[in-house]
Design brief:
single chain; globular
């Protein structure tokens, strides 16, 4: 099968449209936290036992910036810092019940917004999209270890 010449551009445009749909769904919610803070909460939920240093790595920021983000989330009651029971010198970041509720509501709202767009598409096209997205995800994850190795080699060369 021949690849359309503008496939990458079409994917980029679709990704922008998707971001617009998701942002719109998020902005209609009475959220008192920034998109960056929502990302921090999502990362902490996805990576249990995260500490500030690990969060900084995930965000690709310095630990002091990650710590300030956590300070703000802690101040509004969405995050707690707790001592690791196995090593009390280690402090873990734990989302509060309010954070879990907030993320759950936002996820539901975003899913409904995406579903509204999908409902305007023919079922056959939805199925084709599903297959394409699964294949894209598999190809991206297959390439991820190589991309990380290439990035590390490039960094080593420039260091």
């Amino acid at each position: 099968m021949e690849r359309p010449p503008n496939l990458a551009a079409a994917i980029d445009a679709a990704a922008e449209a998707l971001v617009g749909v998701l942002d719109s769904a998020t902005s209609r919610h009475t959220v008192s936290v920034s998109p960056t803070q929502l990302r921090v909460l999502s990362l902490i939920m996805a990576h249990p036992r995260t500490n500030v240093n690990r969060l900084a790595e995930l965000l690709d920021v310095v630990p002091s910036s990650a710590s300030r983000l956590c300070d703000r989330l802690e101040a509004v009651g969405l995050l707690r810092r707790v001592a690791d029971p196995r090593d009390r010198r280690e402090v873990r970041l734990v989302p509060t019940a309010a954070a879990e509720t907030l993320l759950g509501e936002l996820t539901d709202r975003r899913h409904r917004a995406v579903q509204a767009v999908l409902d305007r598409m023919p079922h056959r096209v939805q199925h084709e999209l599903l297959l394409a997205l699964v294949a894209f995800g598999q190809a991206a994850s297959t390439n991820a270890p190589q991309a990380a190795a290439d990035s590390a080699a490039s960094t080593a060369r420039t260091a």
